[in-house]
Amino acid sequence: MSASEMKKLPYMGFGLRLRKEYLPQLLRQQLDIDWFEIISENYLGERDQAFLQLEQIRRSYPIVMHGISLAIGSPWPLDRDYLARLKNLIDWLQPAWISDHLCWSGADDMQGRMLPLPYSEDALDHIVPRIREVQDYLGRQVLLENVPIEHTDQAPEIPEAEFLQAVAERSDSLILLDAANLHASSVNQDFDPLDYLRKLPRQRVQQIHLAGAVILCGSEDKEAQYNADPIWNLYASALQRFGPVSTMIERMDTIAPLAEMVNELRKARCQAEKVLSAAE
């Protein structure tokens, strides 16, 4: 599918990861949540009770799919069985968009790990045709997420931001920007995250992952706390650079009560409005 045939993806506001613990309440009442992100692999098996619940949820909320198994940078061939099951889910669910990670993984001793790619021309030559092949098969552009980079004394052949830019533009794919991963990489690799944001192509950043429990909105004391938070500062800088971007708030360390996560969405909207209003 050519770029001219791809539909422009919508701005959808603020969403959450859909967790099974949230389903009973979500099936009883409509909450102030703009959309949900699912982990694709949770729905690639038999169409069981989880599918029935997801079908009910999608009647009230837009859904996006986020995968963990594409392994787009791995040296072995693409997993055709996985792609077929993924396409079946896409055709049934009709998500607003689909995403995965810009990484390699899948070796027997590293199942489930998402390892950063070598940022080089050879890596670009390897992954760009694979991304195009996946997109042609699925009939969709794919969002690819930046993964955290550990400390190393060896500088990459291509700086990470320039590598992401080249991947997106050469493959006609999109970017899922993870603010916490960017912060971790900038600390570990000692680069300027704001310069990183400036190098990303504005029109290709479609979604942001934002770690929860870092966004504050209200009193001056809370405002001072939010201003001191590096991940929120990165998020604010991203909004200044890219404008409104669909944002999902996630908790990696715990499953917070749904009411708490809805409250964090409210705070995120509040702060995003402040940033975007100041930028006008």
Descriptive overview:
By secondary structure, this protein is of the alpha/beta class. The chain has 10 helices and 8 strands. The chain has an 8-stranded parallel β-barrel, surrounded by 5 helices. The two termini are 36 Å apart. Residues 1-6 and 213-227 have low confidence and may be disordered.
Largest sheet, if any?
8 strands, parallel, barrel
- The SS-based structural class is alpha/beta
Strand content: 5-15%
Q: Tell how many strands the DSSP assignment holds.
A: 8
What is the N-to-C succession of helices and strands? Answer: EHEHEHEHEHEHHEHHEH
How much is the radius of gyration in Å? 19 Å
Shape: globular
What is the CATH class name?
A: Alpha Beta
Strand order of the largest sheet: 1-2-3-4-5-6-7-8
Keywords:
single chain; 280 residues; alpha/beta; TIM Barrel; 44% helix
Summarize the structure.
With 280 residues, the protein is an alpha/beta fold. The protein has a single domain, classed as Divalent-metal-dependent TIM barrel enzymes (TIM Barrel). Helix content is 44%, strand content 14%.
Question: What topology does this entry show?
Answer:
Layout (H helix, E strand, L loop, with lengths): L13 E4 L5 H6 L6 E5 L9 H10 L4 E4 L13 H14 L4 E4 L19 H18 L3 E4 L14 H12 L2 E5 H11 L3 H7 L5 E7 L8 H9 L1 H13 L3 E5 L7 H22 L1
